[in-house]
Each structure stands twice: as C-alpha cells, then as structure tokens.
Amino acid sequence: MDEKDILLNINLPGIKLFKKGKVRNVFDLGDKLLLVASDRISAFDSVMPNGIPDKGKVLTQLSAFWFDFTKQIIDNHMISANVDEFPDEIRMHADIKKILAKRSMLGRKTASIDVECVARGYLSGSAWSEYEKTGSVCGIKLPAGLKESDKLPEPIFTPATKAASGHDVNISEKEMMDIIGVEPGTLLRDKTLEIYNKCRDYADSKGIIIADTKFEFGFVDGEIIIIDEMLTPDSSRFWPKDSYRPGGPQPSYDKQFVRDYLISIKWDKEPPAPLLPDAVVQKTREKYLEAFQKITGKNVL
To answer: Could you tell me the domains of the chain?
Structure first.
C-alpha cells in the first residue's frame, strides 16, 4: 500500500477504532480519543475514491488554530495536536508517528449532543433554497427581496439533526429545545453565535468571508464544550472577500469545486463515486491550503 492509500485509510495496528466517518477515523485510547483526519473527501454523501493530498493536515491544524482562538468563549476537547505529546503507545511507533504528524488531535471523551449548531451570516445553500420557497429559514422570518449570497441583517442560528440517511435536516430553535432542553439549547445558540461573530470578524480581516459554519458540542463532567472540528473548509463556507458579488453562488475555498465537477459530468449521486481528475484534485488542494495560509499565516506542510 503506497502513502496515498495509507493516508486515505488510516489504520493504526493495535489501537482500537472507535468510529470511522467520511473523513476522520477516531481511535479509542481509554479515557481519551485520537482523531485522525484522512485525505478523503466526500460530496453528495459519497466518499470519492481518490483524496486530496494534505487535506487532513489542513483540517486538523485549522481546527487547532480556532480551538485556541476561541478558548475564552468556550472550552473545547483538544488536549494536543502535537504528536510528540501523545501517549507512549503512539509515540513509540515511528511509522505511526509519521502517519499522524499534523493530521491528528488528542481529545477528551465527551457525551455527544445530537444537534448540529449552524450559524449563518449569509444566505446560501439550503438556507437560500428554503428562503426562496418560504421567506424564512428554520422558522426565522427574513426580510423580503434578499438575493442568493446576500449578507443577512444579523447572523442567525439554524440547528440541524442527522436523519437516518445521514443528511442534515434543518429544525427550528424550538424543536431543538424540545430535543435537548431549554437551558443547554440556549447555551448552544448563544455560544454558536458568539464564536461565529468573533471568527467571522477575524477571517474578514484576512480576506475571507465565513458565510456559514456548523459546530458540534458535547458534555464533559456536566460541562458543555465544543468538539470535533472547527471552522474548516469541510464544516464551513469560506468565500474570497475580494470576489464577493451577491446575486448567485460564490467562488469558495471549500469542496464546492468538487461538487461543481461532479455536477458537470452529470453524476447521478449514487455510489460508487467517480474518480476525480488530477486537475480537480490539485485545484481543490490549492484552495484548502490557501484558506489555511490566509487564516493562520502559516504553511501547513
């Protein structure tokens, strides 16, 4: 198996796999979890057969940046993103350390909260589709006459749940409160918007518009903390500020480039997914790296 295949699959011999997602493999280290971001990329609920080189590094390092940036607003699950600070069972294997370097994070175990917390500052994606039909988004009435990608008068909180199919299903704030309770629901709403506002303003100063993003939260010892990933091109819509023109879709730093290619070849969105051409892979890699470098001022490699 060559290095590309290894970075798509991420197996750690002797270490228990806790969960495998579309992009991340999560390993059980007893009282902690090891989250490893592969180079896999998904679109339309399918994982592509080939990945995007260095994508996992971008996701992990960008999440680590934002976790540190927002730690005064809310605690997070990150213990370390430095493989040299991982437990002995990881550090003692040089081959495993090489795989994990810059693409893995040691995190606290939490009891997850089964609601995705979405903050939207711009009208795009499923929010735009819903607004076109109803003039509202997740039960929130918006001004008439807005265009696709318009900036909203103020950011809105639009929670979602996962259906059995794996798709996100938008719900109202009241429906969220009914599921998880008023007190935790209120905290999730307030923290989601506070984080979004702080990070949106910072990204704006770096030439990036964060149109929307989603967060996940969990409980540790009765305290709610933020978990999983944070403000990455996989969990957010990042737009170049200098080319922003409301009235239609925007150029982006996320995987929209892959989605656009799949639409152009009229893929029926049923597995198996088609192989991505080298040009699409390279352009997508460049977009992920550019977003990371603009936000952090660092080179991920």
So the answer is: 3-109 (3.30.200.20), 112-254 (3.30.470.20)
